[in-house]
Amino acid sequence: MSSRLEAEALYKVFGRRPDAAVERLRQGADREELRADGATAAVIDASFTVEPGQIFVVMGLSGSGKSTLLRMLNGLLEPTAGSVRFDGDDLTALSDRDLRVVRARKISMVFQHFALFPHRSVLENAAYGLAVQGVPRREREARAAEALSLCGLAGWEKSWPDELSGGMQQRVGLARALATDADLLLMDESFSALDPLIRRDMQDQLLQLQQTLKKTIVFITHDLNEAMRLGDRIAVMRDGRIVQTGTAEDILLRPENDYVASFTQDVDRSRVLTASAVMDGDVRGDEADCGCETAAPDTPFGELCAISARLTHPVAVLDKKGKLVGVVPRQRLVGFLGDEQSAPSVCASPRDRGGDKGGDKVVTRA
Ligand SMILES: Nc1ncnc2c1ncn2[C@@H]1O[C@H](COP(=O)(O)OP(=O)(O)O)[C@@H](O)[C@H]1O
Ligand SMILES: [Mg+2]
């Protein structure tokens, strides 16, 4: 079973008088003011919880503090202030020795440029973390082979790294992390160096693996589309601070400030949204039993469009028990594909439903 990760009021200041800098930050100073004094506030007051089995994505531009935050999560960097708890341990309070043990057994990291050992086979590379743990050869090779197979590399065990494509090498890195059985996976821009198609493939692979492995994952990226694809929850960082934490839909439909909103402008909404986000939920609890096609709250946007195209009336959204929870008139779908201004206005006016002739028919025809 996976474990919970909790970061509480984490600060990391590099440079001069870090503790004094934290005090000033607590009193509202920003990065620029501190820089003038020779201190770099890399991470400022970051708090979040990652539930077992979740993928928590930290998204932000280069320099926003993502890698520094991640290094505090595995104890590679000591926070200037704040604490990190994982699996019952306060990592910030452990002795160096205990911390090394936790790091070797419970935490795995996957970096952007995964350095494979060129003169070791793919299998030996995948088994490296286990070798560090002192796991006997036979067991570590069996576990590494299993991890490679999970990552789609069965049959490549005896190959050399340079016989593999970039995407495959990155899979070996992922396999190395998975082979150790570590509960917590920390992934720093792990897919950022890959070509778009391979990158998509790796994202799918990770999501698929996660369905069975249910690790606790912190995934760092500067790409909002990647964040939205992978993240159960997403933290958006700016200048060292987390400026919003939420689901992909929260970030897209309810940005807490202009900065987050400007980020979401280029996001392909159709990839993120599901029926529950676009439906009109003001449906007066009627039953829907029209014998026609319906959607579920988690039906993806694209599928919803296809259903809508086959119907002459709005799509009914039913929950697991078959209870009507919302309706989606066609023009509502169109509205959500537009810019960020149009979607909320469609949301906000239930009366607009009348615009779709027979808008309620699907509801009342029961
Ligand atoms: N070891 C360090 N010493 C001094 N400054 C650092 C160090 N590591 C990172 N920084 C600074 O902290 C800020 C955040 O960096 P980083 O965490 O690497 O951001 P990101 O991963 O989001 O690109 C940057 O301004 C960077 O220059
Ligand atoms: Mg980084």
From TrEMBL:
<dbReference type="GO" id="GO:0006970">
    <property type="term" value="P:response to osmotic stress"/>
</dbReference>
<dbReference type="GO" id="GO:0016887">
    <property type="term" value="F:ATP hydrolysis activity"/>
</dbReference>
<feature type="region of interest" description="Disordered">
    <location>
        <begin position="342"/>
        <end position="366"/>
    </location>
</feature>
<dbReference type="GO" id="GO:0005524">
    <property type="term" value="F:ATP binding"/>
</dbReference>
<protein>
    <submittedName>
        <fullName>Glycine/betaine ABC transporter ATP-binding protein</fullName>
    </submittedName>
</protein>
<keyword id="KW-0547">Nucleotide-binding</keyword>
<keyword id="KW-0067">ATP-binding</keyword>
<keyword id="KW-0813">Transport</keyword>
<dbReference type="InterPro" id="IPR003439">
    <property type="entry name" value="ABC_transporter-like_ATP-bd"/>
</dbReference>
<dbReference type="Pfam" id="PF00005">
    <property type="entry name" value="ABC_tran"/>
</dbReference>
<dbReference type="InterPro" id="IPR017871">
    <property type="entry name" value="ABC_transporter-like_CS"/>
</dbReference>
<dbReference type="InterPro" id="IPR051921">
    <property type="entry name" value="ABC_osmolyte_uptake_ATP-bind"/>
</dbReference>
<comment type="similarity">
    <text>Belongs to the ABC transporter superfamily.</text>
</comment>
<dbReference type="GO" id="GO:0016020">
    <property type="term" value="C:membrane"/>
</dbReference>
<feature type="compositionally biased region" description="Basic and acidic residues">
    <location>
        <begin position="350"/>
        <end position="366"/>
    </location>
</feature>
<feature type="domain" description="ABC transporter">
    <location>
        <begin position="5"/>
        <end position="264"/>
    </location>
</feature>
<dbReference type="InterPro" id="IPR005892">
    <property type="entry name" value="Gly-betaine_transp_ATP-bd"/>
</dbReference>
<keyword id="KW-0129">CBS domain</keyword>
<dbReference type="GO" id="GO:0031460">
    <property type="term" value="P:glycine betaine transport"/>
</dbReference>
<dbReference type="InterPro" id="IPR027417">
    <property type="entry name" value="P-loop_NTPase"/>
</dbReference>
<dbReference type="InterPro" id="IPR003593">
    <property type="entry name" value="AAA+_ATPase"/>
</dbReference>
